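Morning run. Coffee first, then this:
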Amino acid sequence: MSGTDTPVEGWRPAFRAWRARRPFLGGLLLTLGGGWILLTVKASLKVVIHVGVQGVAGYLLPVVMVLCGLLTLFSPSQRLFYSVLGLLCSLGSWVTSNLGGFFVGLILGAVGSCMIFGWLPDQEPRVSRRKRRKAARAAAQTQGFGGGAGEPA
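And here it is:
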């Protein structure tokens, strides 16, 4: 056999197919929000506003956010639980770690959690307006509506 019998697929089509089966952007935003909050907890003392309740919750909530984001990416069947837990941790980071990473981590985590919660796995991909118009024109031409046939007298 020559090597031309099988189609050559690269890593991009495989990654697109993997990404299409899960709430990728929401999981990524939730993970980035938790990572950002972890980075701001380690900021210098001149920048730090509030480390948190005895310092533990300031590290615990962003770690849970990162875990929820990663688990959403690799186990999308449990996305509702991870999104609710991620949203609660994002909102809890307001109190425990530098105003939620100076609002950036809080907003990233909250938006990512909402995107995860709203993701539907069996939904058909959206068709662009241009493709819908093109299909409608093609359907109208095949049915012969252009000549005025079928109009009442």
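The radius of gyration is 24 Å. Good start to the day.
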